[in-house]
């Protein structure tokens, strides 16, 4: 791209006059052109970038450009733009970026007249009548693609581009602008879709019946832009699944079409009829504790994750941002940090002006005087061009754009171009929800029981106060005065009060334990249910031992909240009452006692950081230790077979010593701080005895009063010491919460959105993959790349290829164990991502290469639901070629298989798993190397039986023995994540390529 002399503007005046800008009066147009520049683009260069509002709009003067859409699986060319076209006005008016525009002239460079977007925004109100009559194909494509994309049968409809072209030719689309307070422009004969303007982004593409359904942003400056589509026309397309001019279909009557569309609209409307009021979010605005670049970065991302409700570990980030001031490109470094916190980070450039700021997608990260700040909101011009941002030193501030501009670092000499990082949540990112408050809903129903605990505690404390008071009376009235006759009465009274106190204490403990157990049952049940609903990728990220260790943290959290925390807090609260009693005895002694409290608090706060770090190290080393132990026990056969006992033992000892070392340091650190607290308490006791003795000698305090005071002082300092210990426990529990949050905060497969999807009808068996790509990481190597295939109902399909070619990954996409990054998978023309997961997996049976059997009988493993008859179980076992083996066992079908089926061979476990699937009789079957452990003859019989029992049903079979696939209807050969050959056995053999070579090698080996 290069700028051309502005003198050439005179020659292109006619082209500008013929464009949409030609409707402006000459004075306004001349003023607008004063800021314009001529620019030139080579083929492929971007005029309007994807994902951001354009900094420039363009009048196309010479050459051509392509407007590209952005659907899930492709970026189709929506429109070819020719000279006179005004490029970039749609996103400025809609306030939402979509698609992109690129130069597309082979013969000549593309020449445009570039006008800054902020200048265009100023004159947009003058062009609203003209733009209301202008229907942008890119805009229509975006809205219809969003609308149709929510339909489960989207794949059988014509392409969005074809539908848009048809509707435009038929004149079945129109656009209306609506300002708040104006009469509604919506008419019943049109389906109205929200296009943008001052509507919230989640409204784009939504169908509305009334303007009151549209949710607006806080300061609606722009009009609401609405696109209407004739109801009979769009309904006919949806009902017949074709364009009306297709001679193979009969057009539905207008009444039928409108009824069809009404049903669809009811399905696609949001759940609540009345939209929720839009609330301005609460901005936390944490302030940095140190004036350093590293601390400023931590605070900035803490504020962003708070806003986006993402989990955040500030200690982890602090360890990674050291030396950030030495980074040559800090914005790029911020982008990498954002990726680590599961955010999409888009680097954007905008003009240093009010219009430029209004094009920034919030929240965004930008630097003011080199300090990272979070831009929360950009006010409208009517509000005074105010920015709401969080500064690491000042917290949340509302500043004018004029105040902010001098603090921005510009990218050009004129100081007109600046950059920022637009941030948003990644789809599927964990939602921060687990913390201290998470347990409260489970404890809240136990309010009555906890009230009883409180009442019992009050009586326990009151009775506890009776002991020192009675002791004082015994010493002062009985012992000193020699009244021995009163001792039995005092003794009986003290004994009675002690018994009552013990009974109440036991009752309090009983109620607390009952509450604890009830809460434990609910929390444990939820945790297990949540764990089982997590996606497969989550379990591949954490070892079994690590997960087990994290789940066990529940016990730590529960016991702390329902026992230790409550009792200590209540004791501390009651100690305030004791302080009042102590003051009645002697203010001087009370002061001597309370002098230890600041010492205890200082020691507690000083030790909290070191104790927390040691607890984290101990938990991490323990997780590694437990993971290694479980891994060893699960693979004990391999350990013994390869004679690796000594190596395993040595590794275990090394890891255990590391754990003991960290555990010793954490224990000793805790004990040292505890000993210091105890010493402070002991010194306080000595001071009390010394000062109290002086007061007693002087006659200001009786001996009984001194002893009673000392006992009551213990009631105060004891809870305070436990409170100090509780602070250490809080550090440990906080670590438990952080570790468990990684589990609880992970979104489930069975999401709330999934529950509102359509159920998949009974499967017939047609399976299609359209341009599907998948990788375990969002960036980097893809395990599957642009895979497309079609399987007709009832076909037996073979998937072959070398190890690591993507076969198993592909079949795991069919039942949504994995979700592709790109492309669409349909079963019977239903997009599997738009049906409920439960209805999909109920109809898909899968036998993995290494099936898991539970520690139960063979019969219970075949019929784990317990709903089939013995005859059905035996028939399934016979078809799986495992019945004869079972019948020869001493206990037959009642034989226990051991943990994970350890008492059976690999082939026996596989055949039992095959019997499970036969018994379930699914409508679509996946065999993922399900016979790899069988001998050739047994495998041949099993495969033959499966082809018979599942005849008429679609079967995907992964195998390395190609001879089993000679009768397959289709065979797909995968290599490096792509299908490189496809066809029947005979066809692939005739091609004499990869399949032929592999089959020939196996034939020679056999």
CATH third-tier fold name of the domain at 517-744? ABC transporter transmembrane region fold
**Per the principal axes of the C-alpha atoms, what is the gross shape?**
globular
Number of helices: 34
CATH class of the domain at 517-744: Mainly Alpha
Strand fraction band?
15-25%
CATH architecture of the domain at 517-744: Up-down Bundle
Number of beta-strand segments: 29
Low-confidence stretches: 246-260, 266-283
Write out the strand line-up for the largest beta sheet, numbering strands in chain order. Answer: 14-19-15-16-17-18
End-to-end separation in angstroms reads: 64 Å
Q: Profile the largest sheet.
A: 6 strands, antiparallel
Word description of this protein:
By secondary structure, the protein is of the alpha+beta class. Among the domains are: 1-134, Jelly Rolls; 293-425, Alpha-Beta Complex (Cathepsin B, Chain A), CATH 3.90.70; 517-744, ABC transporter transmembrane region fold; 850-920, 3-Layer(aba) Sandwich (Rossmann fold). The protein contains 34 helices and 29 strands. The strands form 6 sheets. The protein has a 6-stranded antiparallel β-sheet with strand order 14-19-15-16-17-18. A 6-stranded mixed β-sheet has the order 25-26-27-22-28-29, with helices on both faces. A 5-stranded antiparallel β-sheet has the order 1-2-9-4-7. A hairpin with a 3-residue loop joins strand 17 (386-391) and strand 18 (395-400).
């Amino acid at each position: 791209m290069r700028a051309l002399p502005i003198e050439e503007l005179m020659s292109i005046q006619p082209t500008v006059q013929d464009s949409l800008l030609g409707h402006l009066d000459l004075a306004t147009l001349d003023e607008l052109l004063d800021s314009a520049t001529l620019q030139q683009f080579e083929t492929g260069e971007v005029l309007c970038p994807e994902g951001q509002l354009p900094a420039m709009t363009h009048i196309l003067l010479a050459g051509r450009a392509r407007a590209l859409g952005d659907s899930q699986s492709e970026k189709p060319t929506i429109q070819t733009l020719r000279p006179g076209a005004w490029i970039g006005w749609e996103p400025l008016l809609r306030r939402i970026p979509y698609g992109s525009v690129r130069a597309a002239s082979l013969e000549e460079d593309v020449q445009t007249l570039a006008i800054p977007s902020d200048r265009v925004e100023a004159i947009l109100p003058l062009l609203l009548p003209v733009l209301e009559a202008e229907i942008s194909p890119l805009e229509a494509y975006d809205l219809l693609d969003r609308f149709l994309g929510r339909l489960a049968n989207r794949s059988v409809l014509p392409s969005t581009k074809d539908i848009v072209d048809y509707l435009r030719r038929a004149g079945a689309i129109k656009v209306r602008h609506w300002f708040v307070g104006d009469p509604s422009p919506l008419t019943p004969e049109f389906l109205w879709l929200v296009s943008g303007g001052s509507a919230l982004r989640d409204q784009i593409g939504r169908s509305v019946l009334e303007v009151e359904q549209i949710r607006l942003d806080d300061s609606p400056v722009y009009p609401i832009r609405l696109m209407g589509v004739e109801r009979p026309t769009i309904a006919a397309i949806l009902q017949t699944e074709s364009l009306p001019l297709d001679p193979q279909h009969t057009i539905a009557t207008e009444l039928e079409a409108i009824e069809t569309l009404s049903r669809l609209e009811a399905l696609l409307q949001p759940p609540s009829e009345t939209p929720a009021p839009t609330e301005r979010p609460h901005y936390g605005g944490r302030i940095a504790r140190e004036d350093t670049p590293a601390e400023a970065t931590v605070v900035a991302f803490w504020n962003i994750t708070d806003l986006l409700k993402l989990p955040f570990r500030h200690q982890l980030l602090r360890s990674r941002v050291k030396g950030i001031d030495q980074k040559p490109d800090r914005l790029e470094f911020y982008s990498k940090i954002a990726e680590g916190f599961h955010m999409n980070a888009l680097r954007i450039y905008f003009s240093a002006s009010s219009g430029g700021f209004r094009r920034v997608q919030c929240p965004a990260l930008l630097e003011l005087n080199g300090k990272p700040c979070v831009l929360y909101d950009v006010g409208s011009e009517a509000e005074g061009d105010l920015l709401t941002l969080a500064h690491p030193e000042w917290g949340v501030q509302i500043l004018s754009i004029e105040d902010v501009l001098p603090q921005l670092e510009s990218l050009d000499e004129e100081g007109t171009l600046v950059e920022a990082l637009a941030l948003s949540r990644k789809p599927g990112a964990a939602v921060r929800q687990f913390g201290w408050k998470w347990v409260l809903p489970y404890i809240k129903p136990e309010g009555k029981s906890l009230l009883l605990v409180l009442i019992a505690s009050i009586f326990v404390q009151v009775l506890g106060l009776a002991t020192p008071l009675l002791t004082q009376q015994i010493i002062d009235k009985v012992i000193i005065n020699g009244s021995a006759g009163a001792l039995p009465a005092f003794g009986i009274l003290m004994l009675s009060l002690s018994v009552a106190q013990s009974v109440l204490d036991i009752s309090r403990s009983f109620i607390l334990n009952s509450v604890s157990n009830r809460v434990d049952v609910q929390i444990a049940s939820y945790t297990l249910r949540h764990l089982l609903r997590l996606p497969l990728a989550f379990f591949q990220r954490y070892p079994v031992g690590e997960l087990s260790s994290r789940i066990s943290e529940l016990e730590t959290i529960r016991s702390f909240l329902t026992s230790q925390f409550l009792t200590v807090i209540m004791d501390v609260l009651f100690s305030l009452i004791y302080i009042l009693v102590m003051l009645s005895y002697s203010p001087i002694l009370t002061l001597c006692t309370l002098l230890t409290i600041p010492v205890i608090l200082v020691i507690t706060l000083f030790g909290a950081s070191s104790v927390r770090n040691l607890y984290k190290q101990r938990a991490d080393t323990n997780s590694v230790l437990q993971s290694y132990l479980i891994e060893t026990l699960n693979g004990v056969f391999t350990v013994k077979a390869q004679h690796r006992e000594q190596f395993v033992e040595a590794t275990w000892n090394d890891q255990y010593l590391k754990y003991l070392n960290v555990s010793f340091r954490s224990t000793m650190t805790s004990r040292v701080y505890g000993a210091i607290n105890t010493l402070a308490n002991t010194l306080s006791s000595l001071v009390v005895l010394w000062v109290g003795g002086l007061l007693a000698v002087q006659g200001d305090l009786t001996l009984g009063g001194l002893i009673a005071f000392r006992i009551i002082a213990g009631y105060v300092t004891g809870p305070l010491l436990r409170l100090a210990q509780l602070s250490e426990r809080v550090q440990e529990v906080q670590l438990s919460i952080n570790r468990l949050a990684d589990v609880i905060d992970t979104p489930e497969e069975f999401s709330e959105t999934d529950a509102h999807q359509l159920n998949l009808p009974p499967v017939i068996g047609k399976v299609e993959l359209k341009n599907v790509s998948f990788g375990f990481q969002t960036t980097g190597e893809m395990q599957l790349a642009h895979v497309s295939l079609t399987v007709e109902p009832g076909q037996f399909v073979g998937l072959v290829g070398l190890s690591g070619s993507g076969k198993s990954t592909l079949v795991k996409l069919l039942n949504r164990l994995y979700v592709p990054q790109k492309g669409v998978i349909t079963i019977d023309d239903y997009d599997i991502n738009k049906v409920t997961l439960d209805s999909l997996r109920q109809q898909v049976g899968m036998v993995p290469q290494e099936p898991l059997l539970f520690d139960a009988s063979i019969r219970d493993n075949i019929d784990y639901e317990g709903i089939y008859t013995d005859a059905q179980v035996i028939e399934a076992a016979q078809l799986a070629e495992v019945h004869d083996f079972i019948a020869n066992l001493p206990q037959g079908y009642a034989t226990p298989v051991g943990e994970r089926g350890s008492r059976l061979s690999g082939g026996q476990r596989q055949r039992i798993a095959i019997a499970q699937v036969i018994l379930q009789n699914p409508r679509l079957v996946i065999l993922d190397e399900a016979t790899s452990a069988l001998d050739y003859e047994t495998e041949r019989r099993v495969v033959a039986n499966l082809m018979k029992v599942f005849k008429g049903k679609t079967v995907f079979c992964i195998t390395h023995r190609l001879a089993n696939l000679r009768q397959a209807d289709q065979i797909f050969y995968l290599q490096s994540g792509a299908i490189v050959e496809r066809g029947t056995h005979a066809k692939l053999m005739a091609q004499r390529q990869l399949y032929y070579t592999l089959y020939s090698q196996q034939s020679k080996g056999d």
